[in-house]
Amino acid sequence: MRQRESVVGIGGRIVVLTGAGISVESGLPSFRGAGGLWQGWRLEEVATPEGFARDPGLVQRFYDERRRQLLDPAIQPNAAHRALAELERCWPDPVLVVTQNIDDLHERAGTQGLIHMHGELLKARCGSCAGVASWRADLAIDHRCPSCGGTCSLRPHVVWFGELPLELDAIYKALESCALFVAIGTSGQVYPAAGFVEAVRAAGRAHTIELNLEPSAFSARFAEHRQGPAAELVPRFVAELLSGAGQ
Ligand code: BJW
Ligand code: ZN
User: Is the CB of 19 under 6 A from ligand 1?
Assistant: First the structure.
């Protein structure tokens, strides 16, 4: 595998994997650790299809609360989201952001090449016809599906444990052909996202970097690590990349 001391001066496709840590400085909590979302909820109850089948009202309330928080005008993209959008605008080759996050902060910052592999909080999916629709209201009460007209079967358009993440073929294709893979603010505890760095390394041509507040479960798999808050690290990293682009 090609290793570099510095990323300055490289070109080629970039794939960025983001996790909950990139949105923390926007005011959204991460999942694990002190103050994380899982502290107040049992993940088997709110993040599995079995939990939803057992108590749909409870699961809907969990996501309703998070949707209301996301729609609060105080929640805005931070400097890390904006820097990634700038990278996409200015980098000479394709940049793909693969986010595990269900918030819409990357798109609000202007990122266009974006895959929400774990779904989107501002969409709902019909349990009968699988139709997906934009959704900003609470789901806790019965609704009619905009596609098939059925009632009571709408669920958040998110990927729970045991379900297949979205657009995996496109993700693996990009991972196998990238020159640089960057993971930002993710704990590396959830697969298949935690295994993306291995797929990149197996292809043998990309530099791999982790940007995180602290060492994570998969830090050792990356060629390079930078530690600190995303809203500081990411703009600095992007400026460094762009200063060397095309050299
Ligand atoms: C900062 C910061 C700051 C903080 N600046 N950084 C055994 C082995 C391997 C796999 C499995 C296994 N048993 C079961 C599985 C599979 C399972 C899995 O991985 N389980 C693990 C628990 C082991 N995975 C699945 O079921 C997935 N599906 C699947 O595998 O399908 C089969 C298949 C796949 C591929 C090919 C073939 C078949 C589905 C996983 C779905 C995950 N869903 C959730 C909920 C989604 C909706 C929602 O948001 O509610 O997704 S769980 C939750 O975790 C959410 C997140 O996207 C995901 C990852 O969390 P993330 O983003 O990493 O957040 P945190 O909180 O963990 O970490 C935050 C990080 O930020 C930390 O590192 C901080 O340090 C850092 N940080 N502040 C920078 N300011
Ligand atoms: Zn329907």
Answer: yes
